[in-house]
């Protein structure tokens, strides 16, 4: 199924229904329906650039794909056995020895059928990956778009294993390789040889499934460097909750159980979690963030659109279609539906209580209907980007990373925030 959606600034009057500002951008979301949930595993934002008023100055930097040719010998391959890859843009000046690593997101595959489908896409094979991708948001090379990290060495590691870079198994009958953990190790070894070993500053980031991976691998990343390197981690849109759906079942737990069991993820989960909880529960960030020793920042929408669509109100949990309009556009939600979503926000904040008490950690939890806000220029850093108490996402992350203060921001409940760039599906 193919759905078109647009980003909508909450301050725009709904009757106008015009795109955000004059920066038109739409997304094609290819949803794979399987086992009653939507795997939004192939999302592309297609921007029409050219309006500096909204933080976009000219066309974005396009960065080429590099395959890791030594990976196959280590068994570090994509689902179909092809080589993994990454995109690297070198830093310069004051950022020449600083490194930003972003782990790509894109859902998961929890069954043989889903993984066989996935291996014929860019989420499971480098054969189908774009040879060039735009670097925007936190990856932008323009100071006006990315003030703190624009001149760092910036890397995007492509996601082609379907288990947040954490599996280590295979299925010979289906010719599937579940080697996410090995891809992570091979990519780190490659980048260390490219100069990352000399980093004086490093930040591991990730969006969605990549946000889960940045939490899972945060301490591993820290251990790559000496004690003199400032190392921190950022998870964007990765705070997936083990929450009940609208039918009273746990759709996401069922999916994560399939991912963990099928791809051999158990052995790579933190022992500090699996010693006390079922491995499936240890794939949920809410049970992982308390075990991470490295400073960690969480950017998340309180009403995360992926979770609303695929976890809280999937069609499998709503056979009569009561949620069909609300799940695509919050403007159509009834009062009871809004109350359900407010409870989800409360569960998220409760799960973050202990995490937020630590002085080393940071938060930006805004009350928006969005998903992955550090990759998009309009949400990362622009004159009209989302704000909490007069601070945007880029400023909040930068303040935390460089110890400039103001590291924790939690929004008031919907509908109080008029700076949101809410996603409306059509």
UniProtKB/TrEMBL annotation:
Record-listed E.C. numbers: 3.1.1.-
UniProt keyword annotations, A-Z: Cell wall, Cell wall biogenesis/degradation, Hydrolase, Membrane, Secreted, Transmembrane, Transmembrane helix
A GO BP entry: cell wall organization
InterPro entries assigned: PAE/NOTUM
Parts of the chain that traverse the membrane: 20-37
Keyword Nucleotide-binding: no
Enzyme class, UniProt record, top EC level: hydrolase
Name assigned to this protein: Pectin acetylesterase
Keyword Transmembrane recorded: yes
Localization of this protein: Secreted, Cell wall
